[in-house]
Automatic annotation (TrEMBL):
An individual GO BP term: lipid catabolic process
Keywords: Hydrolase, Lipid degradation, Lipid metabolism, Signal
Pfam families linked: Lipase_GDSL
Family to which the UniProt record says this protein belongs: Belongs to the 'GDSL' lipolytic enzyme family.
Plastid in keyword set: no
Organism name: Eutrema salsugineum (Saltwater cress)
Classification via CDD domains: SGNH_plant_lipase_like (cd01837)
Keyword Hydrolase: yes
This protein's name: SGNH hydrolase-type esterase domain-containing protein
SUPFAM superfamilies: SGNH hydrolase
MF (Gene Ontology): hydrolase activity, acting on ester bonds
Length: 353
C-alpha cells in the first residue's frame, strides 16, 4: 500500500496546510497518584459508539479473535471480547468518571436496571463511520440502536442531560478503503466524507439531549505495528491522519460555536500516542517503560492456530512491558499510559460547562 500512497504525500500536506489545523467494572487504580485518577464529577452515564478501541464485548464469540486466547490474559484473565490483553479506552474513561464500564449492547437483556444505569456500549470491533465489515454495524446503525432504547423509555431526558458520549473513530474506514484498492487520488475527498459523516453523527447524538460528546483524534496510524517498523513510523500514513484530524478540529470548533458551550471535545490520542513513543512511556504517568514501543506483545497471527493446533503467534513475557498488544491495539498498560498523558486537561474539558 505504501508505494501507492507516497505520490499523494505532498498533496495531503498541501491540503492540511491550507486548513486550520469479563468483569466490566471499570479500571482498578494501582497507582493513585496518576493524573487520570483526578476523577470526573460531571456526567454520570457513558454511551459509547465506535470500534475495537472502545468495544468491550459486543461481537458474538464466534465472530472475533477478541474472544480467543490469549486476549484478556491480563484482565479479566480470559477473553472478554476486548481487543487487548485487558482493559480498553472505554474502561479507562469510565474509571475517570467513577462509574462502572457500561454494559455492551449485546448483553443488555442479561443485565438488571442497576447495571444499565451507567449507560451502554454500542461499539463493535472492526466497524467504521461507513460500512467496513458485514458483521459489524456501522456508526449510523449503532446510533439507531441507541435511539430505539430511548423510544422504549429506558433512558429519560434527565438521564441524557447528565451523560457523556464517546464516539470512537480509529481508522477502519481508511484501512477498508485501501484494502478495496479504491482510487488513491480520491482519498482526500474520502477523508472529508468520513469527517463530514462524523459531524452528522455528533449532531444527531447531541439532538437526543446528550450533555457532552467526546471524539478522539485519529491515532498515528503510521505508528501501528501493522504499518510501522521497529525503526520508526510511516510518515505517509501519518500525513493522512493529520488531514483527518485537521478537519475534525474544524468540525468540533464549529459545533461548539453553534452551541455556545464546550459540548464537543477532542481527546488528543494523536499526540498522546506520539508522546509515549518518544519518551518510551517515561514521565507519562505510567508505571512501566516501553523499551520498544512499536513492537507488539502478541506477534504474528494473534489468537490463531494451525490445523495441528500449533500457535501462529508469539507472546511476550510481560504484556505490561509493551505499549501495543497486537498489530493494531494497545495493551491495557498502553491505554493506561494514554489516559495518563491526557491527564488533568482531559478531566477539565469533561467538566467544563
Amino acid at each position: 500500500m505504501d508505494p501507492l500512497i507516497k505520490p499523494f504525500f505532498s498533496l495531503l500536506l498541501f491540503f492540511s496546510s491550507t486548513l486550520l489545523f469479563g468483569e466490566i467494572n471499570g479500571v482498578e487504580g494501582s497507582n493513585q497518584h496518576h493524573q487520570y485518577h483526578d476523577h470526573l464529577y460531571g456526567p454520570k452515564k457513558l454511551f459509547v459508539f465506535g470500534d475495537s478501541y472502545a468495544d468491550t464485548g459486543n461481537i458474538k464469540k464466534s465472530h472475533a479473535v477478541s474472544w480467543r486466547v490469549p486476549y484478556g490474559i491480563t484482565f479479566p484473565g480470559k477473553p472478554s471480547g476486548r481487543f487487548s490483553d485487558g482493559r480498553v479506552s472505554t474502561d479507562f474513561l469510565a474509571r475517570l468518571m467513577r462509574i462502572k464500564s457500561p454494559i455492551p449492547y449485546l448483553w443488555k437483556d442479561y443485565a438488571g436496571n442497576k447495571r444499565l444505569r451507567y449507560g451502554m456500549n454500542f461499539a463493535y470491533g472492526g466497524t467504521g463511520v461507513f460500512n467496513t465489515q458485514s458483521s459489524s454495524p456501522n456508526m449510523t446503525i449503532q446510533i439507531n440502536l441507541f435511539e430505539h432504547l430511548l423510544g422504549d423509555d429506558l433512558y429519560s431526558p434527565s438521564d441524557l442531560s447528565s451523560s457523556l458520549a464517546l464516539v470512537s473513530v480509529a481508522g477502519n474506514d481508511y484501512s477498508n478503503y485501501l484494502t478495496l484498492s479504491r482510487s488513491i487520488a480520491e482519498l482526500p475527498a474520502f477523508i472529508k466524507q468520513v469527517v463530514d459523516q462524523t459531524e452528522v453523527n455528533l449532531r444527531r447524538i447531541h439532538a437526543f439531549g446528550v450533555e457532552k460528546i467526546a471524539v478522539p483524534s485519529l491515532q498515528p496510524l503510521g505508528c501501528l505495528p501493522l504499518y510501522a517498523s521497529l525503526q520508526g513510523c510511516n510518515d505517509t500514513f501519518n500525513a493522512l491522519v493529520n488531514y483527518h484530524n485537521t478537519l475534525l478540529q474544524q468540525v468540533v470548533a464549529k459545533l461548539n460555536n453553534e452551541t455556545n458551550h464546550s459540548t464537543f471535545i477532542i481527546f488528543d490520542f494523536y499526540n498522546a500516542f506520539l508522546t509515549i513513543f518518544k519518551t518510551k512511556g517515561e514521565n507519562s504517568g505510567g508505571s512501566r517503560r516501553f523499551e520498544t514501543p512499536l513492537k507488539p506483545c502478541c506477534e504474528g497471527s494473534c489468537a490463531h492456530v494451525d490445523d495441528k493446533g500449533e500457535k501462529k503467534y508469539r507472546l511476550c513475557d510481560d504484556p505490561k512491558s509493551a505499549f501495543f498488544w497486537d498489530g493494531l491495539h494497545p495493551t491495557q498498560q498502553g491505554w493506561e499510559s494514554v489516559y495518563s498523558v491526557l491527564g488533568k486537561n482531559l478531566t477539565a474539558s469533561l467538566i467544563k460547562p
